[in-house]
Amino acid sequence: MYEFYQLLTIAGVFLYWLIIAGISIRVVAKRRTIGVSLAWLMIIYIVPLGGAFAYLLFGELNLGKKRAVRAELMFKPYGEWFKKLYEYRQYRPHVASLYGQSISAICEKQVGIPALADNHLTLCSETYEILDNLIDDIHQATETILLEFYIWHPGGRADDVAKALIQSAARGVKIRLLLDAAGSRHFFKSQWPKLMKQSGIHVVSALQVSPFRMFFRRLDLRLHRKIVVIDNQIAYTGSMNLVDPEFFNQDAGVGQWIDVMVRITGTSVPVLNSIHAWDWEVETNERFLPEQPKCLSHEDSEITDLVQVIPSGPGMREEVIHRVLLQSIYQAQKSIVITTPYFVPSDNLHMALIIAAQRNVTVDIIVPDKNDSLMVEWASRAFFSELLEAGVNIHRFKGGLLHTKSVVIDSNHCLIGTVNWDMRSLWLNFEVTLAVDNLGFTQKLETVQQDYLKNTVMISPEEWKKRPLASRAAERVFYLFSPLL
Predict the structure, then answer these.
(1) Is the pLDDT of residue 2 over 60?
(2) pTM more than 0.70
(3) So which residues are the catalytic ones?
(4) Domain ranges of the chain
């Protein structure tokens, strides 16, 4: 009997070693960034079995077999739809700036979507202005309304949007609403899904969360896009979820969320429509590819507002947003202004910002003074020392949770959309960003950023060095996990 238990112990130790060794080899074989690999190896060795189990659940970009196969099959028809955009007059790469040309070249090779002209962009920076405009456009809809959000939180003006949709559905407008299951959990527990479905609105919960699904799909992959398309003629995208800030997340102690949205008319609206169609098909296996943009003749319109639509996420080509951000920083000659609620950059982005400051580019980063994620807050602080030493200006916004995701380069070009400066947005979530090559729009966004700066406190490098030892220790601990946040 003693020999049996001895053999059982040896077998258990061998099995334990085999599991840890196997998972470690798998981590290394994936050839991701060194920081990500080291963070996972540290978790696996500190909490061996728990770490191995966590890696199997969250360590790899597992969209689920059905969704992955479906996405693979979708590349051809969607690719053919995008190829037709190159035949239109609105595809004019030679009229773009050098910045715009380089960004478009990356996107054309990575996602096959060109930058298109003949758009009209309106920047909306006041929450209730955004909701009022959206409600007005919903009431004017005649054919289709498509919505896609990470969070829909009932209450206040968000309920007015729901009522407007129900009224439009009663007029015969076809409406498809796609919401992230985790982000919009309060919505799905409310009365609105039932009322909407009764009115004929198609309501779909994306990437549902349940203990059973965790063995077949990574649960923390989220639909983080914010897109509205009305009659294939008007679109909205930006940082704002469908919430009334006076009713949303009031217990977090961070103040009201501050956001911007872009209202778009013109050639790029069908492109945003196609992104919604992609997400809808991945989730439901129903195809609703939109009509192509109207091809205007040379006499009908001038070349205006070049816009590059940049989608990213599981099932799409990897790293496109990351590469666009890097290229934008590399090309900056005078200034970079960044607003983001969550600042946990990759090593490459961190170094690119440091080098930009060292070559005398003025770099300003605006982050919230109070964050709704404690882990992100401390991980973010771990990057500040090197940035401050290089001459980067870091500003803490005092007017609420600054949720706007924007980058302005040299006061001439900008990026605006749903992407945070963290690993989750850069590699995991479904996101969308607009690269805008238009001076007038960029100056309006810059004005909004400057208004944010008036309500900030800039971190002093000298004062930062005097922060308590306990804070430094917490920063280093969370820094080790920053590749996984």
Answers:
(1) no
(2) yes
(3) 224, 226, 231, 403, 405, 410
(4) 2-58, 65-102+116-307, 320-484
